[in-house]
Fold each of these.
Amino acid sequence: MSGKFFGENGSSTANAALDLTIGRVADAADCKVQTIRYYEQIGLVPTPPRTAGNQRRYSQADVDRLLFIRHARGLGFPLEAVRDLLSLSDRPDHSCRAADKIARAQLANVEHRIRRLASLKLELERMITQCSGGQISDCRVIEALSDHSRCAAEDHEDPTASH
């Protein structure tokens, strides 16, 4: 991936046709209009020029940038890492060590989440196996959820759960 897809500093290139509406860009990038506006607001996507009627106009470079962001987010990269990767893509002649470091950190994060999810799976299987299917007053699932000390593993919290 090189910066040529996004233009200088992520902006639409001057010779790229600015004929795409935000709706067409959303369809092309398979995302919502609100997502594009949010990415503009936080600086991941440059604010596009507007027509005399105040409509945003985008180029194919903007679509490519959104596809890059969506792919990175799909791989679990946090927004700050996506920002860094976009910045790196604007400097194609530099070493890719920084991009490699970001990807390695994301891999470590994924591996950690996998270990925690495996622990979560084992604990849920244990709870279900111990449940006799009788009445709630004797239910091992409810009992284990009511008292964490009854769990076999201490670190089995779902890393995707919000607190």
Amino acid sequence: MAKILGSDDRVFVEVVVRQSDNRAVIVYYTSEKDTLDNPNAELWIYNGVNEPRHLSLGKFIKTTGINRIRV
């Protein structure tokens, strides 16, 4: 169920931005992984040429071919 936000509601999103080299993104730091563990976190990637873009979980799954995630 989605929550419709009014003017009094605030949603805080933590953003991790990583540079992509040769069409790959490497997350080096534990702090980035810890941040991405937050449900309100997003991973954005930037290759220095195109506009930065959000790397969604769906795009990650499609790109890597992962079809099973151990929970």
Amino acid sequence: MKAPHTDRNAEPGWAPGEAPDRSYGGRSLPDRRADRRKRFRDAGLELFGTVGFARTTISALCAEAGLSRRQFYEEYSGSEELMVEIYDEIQSTTRDRVDQAVLAADHADLDVVAYAAMSAYIDSVATDPRSVRCLFVEAGGISETMEKHRIAGRDDWSKYLVSAIGMLPGTRRWTIDYRATAFIGSTTAVIHRWATSDERPDRAEIVALLAHLLVQFATDDDPA
């Protein structure tokens, strides 16, 4: 009788039809799945951010994560869904760090708040070249669905910026978000160029430039 196939990378203690709350080694199934997804995200960040999205296979992702193809397809429909998750995680982490920096800054001084926000932003997205490539290069042109998701993410940043700026003293409430979109576009271009250049100015110079632009956007009259 032929022995049943076993996956050497499969997690023990989890069989088809198993109760979803069953634990193994003190860890529940949701915990183990969360760990797997993190391992796949780490693998995707490494490969998408170095080799590139188009050149990364599912087999390569699984090898990098130390998991099986079966486990990958239990979590994701394909590499694009993994890219979306990586993209969203970078954006969410960045927004949290900007939030924390703004809350900790002296709100009476707009220049200080702007510098803190831009410092947190550049530290979050521009210190890891893999994140830079995933956000500003690889996320574009994958598919129409991914492009819509990327544009929606940009619009979310615009709304966030308009809301955050409007709560600070000395600023003007913007009636449209095109000004925010313009600032985000210029910020993206500056950070991408700085992060990918061999010769570049000091980080503090770039932070000061972006902070100055933010203050100008926040205090100038609304052109509308």
